[in-house]
Structures are given as structure tokens and as C-alpha cells.
UniProtKB/TrEMBL annotation:
InterPro entries: AMP-binding_CS, AMP-dep_synth/lig_dom, ANL_N_sf. It holds the Pfam family AMP-binding. This is AMP-binding protein. Keywords: Fatty acid metabolism, Ligase, Lipid metabolism. Residues 23-458 form the AMP-dependent synthetase/ligase domain. PANTHER family: AMP-DEPENDENT SYNTHETASE_LIGASE DOMAIN-CONTAINING PROTEIN, LONG-CHAIN-FATTY-ACID--COA LIGASE. GO terms for molecular function: long-chain fatty acid-CoA ligase activity.
Amino acid sequence: MVLFTKFSTVPSLLRNVVENIHQPEETFLIHKKNTTWEEISFKDTLLRADSISAFFLEKGIAKGDRLGLMIENSPEYVYFDQGIQQIGVINVSIYPTLSEHEVAYIINDSGIKALLVGNPFLFKKVLKIAENCQELKYIIPAFAGYEKVAIPEGNKTEIISFTTLLEKTVSKAEQEQIDTRRAEVLPSDVSSLIYTSGTTGTPKGVMLTHSNFVENVNVCLQQIPVIDETETFLSFLPLSHVFERTATYHVCCAQGCKIAFAQSLELLAKNMGEVRPTVMACVPRLLERIHDKAIKSGTAAGGLKANIFNWALETGKNYRHAKEAGKNAGLILGAKKAIAEKLVFSKIKEKTGGRLKFMISGGAALPKNVGEFFGDLGIKILEGFGLTETSPVMSVTEYHRQVYGTVGRVIPGIEVGIQDIETKQIINIQTHNTFNEDFECAEGEVIVRGHCVMKGYFNKPAETAEAIDKDKWFHTGDIGRFYKGNLQITDRLKNMIVNAYGKNVYPTPVENIYLKSPKIDQLFLIGDKREFITAIIIPNKETLQETFNLKESFFQEEDLFIENQEIKDWFEKDIKKISNELAKFERIKNFKIKRNPFSIDEGEITPTMKVKRRVVEKKYAEAINEMYQEGVEAD
């Protein structure tokens, strides 16, 4: 276990690993180069980081300056981050999928002086906006052949190959200066500016300190003590997002685990089989897709194969229930479980590489039935909750105690409160030490205070004061409660639908219930100030294509919504069946089937895949109004 101290900072974590946990020559990073997985040692990582530090010191970059990264997950990200962090420079990571306008805003708002870019597409994007970014002095392409990209006439930003930074020789004097600067980095200093997704307005730069990050990693490792220096993490969620930065990168820096970088989302399944990770951070959509494919593969053939599959799942469920109740499964159930493991579960696990200890799900709510499905297979899914502003983890499932549909126990050292939405009275406050597995309380807004809360929004004192009240409580904007001692998130406060009769509908849990249908990939609920609930449905493309023998051209037609009555009736069957699980005022009375998913490029969803409710409702207002003009009556 790594030794954390009150003086620990992000750059000190990796140095501690090579002093106390691993030999410098041991493997830290793994990435695929051409067709081969290449291993990079701790020693080489730190040497490259020193070269980058020396380069920027030579350029006069000072403590507190902001440098940017717009690059996919890769060793280059780590070299650059370690290189700038150890000289007190602030990391500003930018989502590669953001528009030119959004990228320019972040560069200018944060005052980025140098920007690392990962591929030709991003390089061209930055070149287009560089003339409007007065503070940007250097663009650093981290890919071969950047010289072939046409440079706009009049460009005044210096372009320097990343190879130039890595090949810089570090003199003895420069090394001493780097060591001095590293020692001068304080836990209270800002480590990173991470810009919020902006579902409700202009993105804000969240100031997270070294202490925010280090303490978050420290307490998470306390809560999940099974993570040790032998783990191999497979990294595919963007490092520009705080969840992957903390749950994978910083955890590995602190504990000395290996980080393997997936090539892409499309190649993730293949990479899992090649790398055979023991731990992965993931999002619910990935788990939902694995769930859907496993169910489809297990039952599609029908007959004996489907019967065996369903029997195995039922056996897994009974075995899980026995274990969760603290009972002995018994010889008969144990024997059945062993057969189910051999015939079904092992084949599903093998597709993940066969070594997974657990997966950590975050970023959105995991449907309860999906979590239970993995539990039945014997694959642990630990859920966590937090925001960019909370570093991010506020709560996470304990490895030995799982309550599906919750996001775990409050982490050590912080307070999490539930505040009444109307009266603003605090209903209850829980800490790690007050945990009681039988405790429950009413729902309200989730608030938090303690070491995980951000320093504030960069250059936005008014917005900071609005988010963090006079008693130091940060208001998350999420609705939740405590259930069986664990935090349970109901929805976002700003998502809440109040129908024409004053009934409150929280969209997320309702949407998750409808997502049980294998026909549905996404669902967007509508009904604020309306008499009944409607929805925009995004179909599961693969299932829809196979069922109706559709060609790719069908999804390229101009009509945004599918009007084929046979397809609509096909969806209607599942909608009506699933609606019986809901209160009458929560049930979908009409729906539209959108031909293609919501898009980041169209501004409909954030880079973290959250639907921008206002944008979607405004953009599809005509289609939404049609659903309320078609004579459908509420119950």
C-alpha cells in the first residue's frame, strides 16, 4: 500500500512508486504500436517527463501557468502531464470531440500557452482557431507527418514536434531546477482545470487541487483495499474527464498498477481479450451493451441452448441471493453454480479477458437489472458517484458489500447531506463512520462538504458562491437519498418533470426501466407541464436491422423520425408491457422513434454522453408537439 502523507501531490505519487513499490525498470504503461503491445517502464516515463519539464522551463513557463492537452489516452498524455505537473503547471485537458468554438473558449478562458494535440484532425481544428487565441504560443503535434498539414497563412503560433520535447537532454542544472520546482508544489496548489460539460450553459473551469486528487485516491483505495500493485487497468474512457483521470490514472500512479491504453472504443472488445485486464473503469452504456449482447447470444437460437442459458442465470441469481444474505449456498446450489460457470459464465468472462476482479461504473446511473445480471455471472460491478467538482468520488460500492441500485458508501473524510428541495432544511447527514446498513431516509438534493470539494470555478467567483454555500456545502444538483446505508441517486434536480397535474416525475429511473427492452438503445422522456409523458426513442440499430432486414441506407434517409407503422407497433408491444411496472402518471403514452442517436457534433449530448435536455426539447419541438396533438389521453 502506498504511503500517503499530508504533503503528497500528484507528481510525488509516481516517484513514491519507484522508491517504495516497484523497480524503475518494471512496466508502467502498455500501448499498441502497429500490431504489437509495447511496454514502457516507470524509469522511461519519468525520464521523458523530465525532458518535457526542462523544455518548458527553458521557454519560461512559470508555476501556475496553464498548458493544454487535446489528445486521446496514450503514453504521450502521461509524459506531458507528469512533465508539467512536477514544475507546478496546471493541466487543462480538452475533450477531443468539442467544437472549434468550444475549444477556442476553453483556450482563451484558461489562458493556455501551449497545447498538445494528438492527431491531424485535431491539429487542423486548432490551427483554424489559433489566430483568435492570443495567449497560445505553442502548438505541439504528437503524431508523425504533421508537416504535411497545411498551415493557415499568417499563423503566428509556433509549431513544435512533441519528439523535440522528448529528445531534449536534461542538464544537471536543469535537473536540479526540476527537483526544486517539484518540492515547491503544494497540496493546496491547483493541479488541473477541468471544464464542465455545459448541459445548462457556458462551460466552467473546475479548479481541482493536488490535495483534491490525492485525498480522493487515498480514501478510494481505503474503501476498495483489494486494488494492489499487481493490477492491470485497461484505460478507454477519456483522460480529459475526471472519472478516468482519478479512477484509473491517479490510482495507478499511487499504487504502481499497470495502465494499458485501448486503441479505440471500436476495438475495446478485442483489446480486452489481448490485454486481459484485472480492473476497468467504465460507463453504464458499455455494461448495457455487454448485457444485451450476452442475452441475445444466449437466447437467440432458442431450444436447449436458450434453456441452459436461462437456467444458468437463474442459478447465478439464487447463488448471489444466498451469498448476499450471508447464508451458505449449500452443496446442491454450489454444484449447480459450478455447472453454470463452466457452461455459460466462463464463456462470457473469457470475452473480457478472463481476469477481471471488478469493473468500476460511473458517469451515469447503472440500471439495477444490469448490475444484478453481472452479479449473477459473478462479475463485480462497483458503482461510484461524484461530479467534476468533487474530484470526483463522493461514494463508491464496497467490494464486500453490494446493494444494487445504489452508488455505495460515503468515502472517508467527507460529509454527504440530503437537503429538502422546498424548505432547504437538511434531512440527514451521513459520513463513512456513521454507516448503518439498515439506515434509510427521505430524498432531497445531495450536498457535500470536505476534502473532495473543488477550490472553485476559475475566474468565476459568483458562480463559485452559488455552488458552495456559506456553510461550505457544495450543492450537486442531484436528487437522492440513503438506502440501506448507501447513497442512492434518483435524478438531476434540473431534469425533474412536473406534469400538468403537479406530479413529479424523475426521468432517469423511468428511462432505465424502459431500457430493459433490448429494442431500445436510448430513451428521452418528455412531459414537463404536459398532461402525460411522451418519449423520443433511439432504437438498438443492430436489433432493428436484423428484425426488419434493413439496409444501411435506411438510417441515412432524410426523415429524422421513423414513421413505418410495423416498426412502431413492434416498439409499442414493449412499451405497453414495461409500462405496467410504473405508476400511471409515469407511463409513456406516445413516442417518436429517432432514426439516429443523439450526437455530440450536433450539440445534443455532452462528451460524457448526457443529453442536453433544453437543446433536444428546442430542436425537436415540432415533433414533440405532434405527440401531444394526436389525440392520446392520459389515464
